[in-house]
Amino acid sequence: MTERSGKCLCGAIRYTLKGAPRAITACHCSHCQKQSGSVFSLNLVMRDTDFEVTGETRVFVDTGDSGDPVMRHFCGTCGAPIYATIAAAPGKIVLKAGTLDDLAGLRPQTEIYTEHAVAWLEPIAGTKRYPRHI
Question: What family is it from (predicted)?
Answer without folding.
Answer: Belongs to the Gfa family.
